[in-house]
Amino acid sequence: MSELTPGANAALPSGDLSVLIRHGVIPGAEIDVSAFLVTGTGKVRSDADMCFYGQPSVAGGAVALAGTSGGETRFTVAPGRIPAGVEKVVFTATIHENRAPFSRVPEIGLEVGGISGRIPCAGMTETALILAELYQRNGAWKVRVVGQGFNGGLAKLAPHLGVEVAEPAPAPAPPPPKPTPAPPKAEPAPAPRVEAAPPPKPVSLTKVTLTKSGASSRISLDKSAGGVVRVTATWIDNGDRRSDNDDLDLRAGILMPDGSMHWLAASHPGGLTASPFARHMGDVRSATRDAPGTEIIEVDAGISHKLGGPVGLVFSIYSAISNGPVSIASLKPTMTVEYRGNVIRCEYSFPDGKAAKGVYTYVIATILVDRDELDVKLSGLTSARGSENTPWITRNGSDLNVTFDGAPVFKKGRTMLARMLGAGTRKYANV
Amino acid sequence: MAVSLSKGGNVSLTKEAPGLTAITVGLGWDARVTDGAAFDLDASVFICGEDGKVRSDTDFVFYNNKTGAGGAVQHTGDNTTGEGDGDDEQVKVDLSKVPTEVKKLVFAVTIHEAESRNQNFGQVSNAFMRVVNSVGGSVLAKYDLSEDYSTETAMIFGEIYRHNDEWKMKAIGSGFAGGLGSLAASHGVNMG
Fold first, then answer.
1. In chain B, where are the structural domains located?
2. pTM for the full predicted model
3. What backbone phi and psi angles, to 5 degrees, belong to A87?
4. How far is A19 from chain B (nearest CA, A)?
5. Which residue of chain A comes nearest to B122, CA vs CA?
6. Is the predicted pLDDT of residue A197 greater than 80, yes or no?
7. Which of A8, A130, A148 sits opposite B150 (nearest CB)?
8. Which of A78, A161, A270, B45 has the fewest C-beta atoms under 10 angstroms from its C-beta?
9. Minimal CA–CA distance to A22: which of A143, A132, A124?
10. Which class does domain B3-186 fall in?
């Protein structure tokens, strides 16, 4: 049997199939091969229909990624177990971050059910390719070699296959009008004091509760005493009687004095004895109303001195994907910043309801540590619906600006999904 | 109700629509959704006599010669991308004015610059040929070629032919090597 070239099709034998894709390697550019289960409209039913290395078995094992090595990727396909409604299994190859076009490999080979195919790649400018599709015709499965794709890579291929890409980030909510700061002396302790205005900012020595976006408060750090600043995020069970969907994660991005960003999360715990002089104390997976879920990040009070300049931190709450559609807001996350008896509590009421659905990241607050002062500012910004982007900060004098163009960061195994969905391009130095 | 033909099948258009006098033959395909050169498919008609050849070069109706058989066959124009719903190219045939010595009209579709663009029919989605009654607009027959092509760059989609006193349509769906030029030559067109 002659080799199939792009456009050609052939009938497949019945029974389970092994699919071998010989894509070769491109030095300095990673090739990812994936399979998408699509309906008659050519789109996936959900992200669960994407078979890639972060999700190697889909549709109850009907399509599975068996492995990649030596420039070859193997899948197994059990056509008899593919769910009704799925009409095609589309195999794709994409080049991570569009670092090279497919012309860098001479050809891509395909073997399935005793049939071989070949896609010549000379002159190709595409960075994402549909290699082939297995499809049903009159109740029997066939294979067609396609060899067409997109110059724009995954960002163009994903929507073609019905994978939603992040909407552009909405404009952040405008900060509330600046309250007129009351003269410090006129304010009896321990009444909370809140202000949004830049300096001069008096230093609070009492408990403060921030509730409005943009509100901020300061704590003086005692250089001689040292110690740690303890940042605690807390959330409750959302009351839906399920214990498996209360898994929120506290994460932080650390803006180093040199402008680079360091990622801090349960998966990237950092440490107090060396840079970044901050550590994540570990992942907590569930919460109840009586025993709220808590995750803690400790920051060396001398971080600014040790890293040699002002350090910014952005603290956010992330809903793990396994939560499903649970709204982070319904878990009422709050955060406290404590240092030697000074407590600043961040209690923003994140909007719940429809608008919160599909929002994965809520920024609780930012902290700027400059020498011996710590400035906490309540944020309340949320990522765009469907976006896995991470919050990013830039410093402008004593102000930290939050944007949502940080690269997605997932727990182990989700990196391919990040590539699928992520529009954020700014990279953490340690991820 | 339109008759759905598969490769090799035929249908009597006259029986489907008694008193049929004029038809529109529509050819369609889906525009390319991936990056790269558009699929520019061209419809052509060979107006053939008893011997299966054109009677003269003017019986080869295509994008540069839009009328044939004294105006009985009219090509409505070139669509270079396949954009839009429904027919992408149409040929109107006034059956009542087709000369009696004409025995069949052969409808072919070729891919423009297939070789340099590295394209073939297997990369084109949802190609079809259909016959519509020009009076009333009902679809008499449709032939969906999707699985009857592979790496061809020129194809005979179907024929409209006389059978006794009837006009019939036959679904051909066979590829032809060498593109429009050799397809035309094989139908007796003098390609000089």
1. 3-186
2. 0.58
3. -105, -20
4. 21
5. A7
6. no
7. A8
8. A78
9. A132
10. mainly beta
B123:A7 CB<8 A? yes
The residue among B79, B153, B81 whose CA lies nearest residue A7 is: B153
Distance (Å, whole) CA A59 – CA A49: 7
Separation of first and last alpha carbons in chain A? 47
Q: What are the pLDDT digits (tens) for A351-410?
A: 766 556 677 888 999 999 999 899 999 998 888 877 788 999 999 888 999 998 888 776
pLDDT tens per residue, range B55-85? 998 999 988 889 999 999 999 877 777 776 6
- Min Cα–Cα distance to chain B from A328, Å: 38
Chain B CB contacts of A150 below 8 Å: 34-35
Amino acid at residue number B130: R
What residues 128-147 of chain B have any CB closer than 8 A to a CB of chain A?
A: 147
> Any idea which of A123-137, A190-204, A334-348 has the lowest mean pLDDT?
A190-204
Nearest neighbour of B122 by CB, restricted to A9, A149, A150? A9
For residues A356 and A328, the answer to whether their CB atoms sit within 8 Å is yes
pLDDT at A240: 57
Q: How far apart are CA B34 and CA A151, in angstroms?
A: 9
DSSP conformational letter for A412: T
Helix H or strand E segment including A250: strand A248-255
Q: Which two tokens stand for residue B56?
A: 């003269």
Q: What is the mean pLDDT of residues A317-322?
A: 69
DSSP letters, A280-330, are E--------SSS-EEEEEEEETTHHHHHTS-EEEEEEEEE-GGGTT--GGG
How many Å apart are CA A37 and CA A79, to the nearest integer? 11
A283 vs A281: CA distance, rounded Å: 7
Q: Strands B41-48 and B60-61: what pairing?
A: antiparallel
Q: What is the mean pLDDT of chain B?
A: 89
H helices of A127-250, in order, are 154-160
Q: How is residue A378 written in tokens?
A: 């309540």
In chain B, which ranges are E strands?
Answer: 3-5, 10-12, 22-28, 41-48, 60-61, 67-68, 73-75, 89-94, 104-111, 128-133, 139-144, 154-163, 166-175
User: What ipTM was predicted for this assembly?
Assistant: 0.80
Kindly determine whether residue A7 and residue B36, on different chains, have CB atoms separated by under 8 Å. no
Q: Minimal Cα–Cα distance from B123 to chain A, Å?
A: 5
* Chain B residue with minimum CA distance to A11: B147
Distance CA A275, CA B87 (A): 66
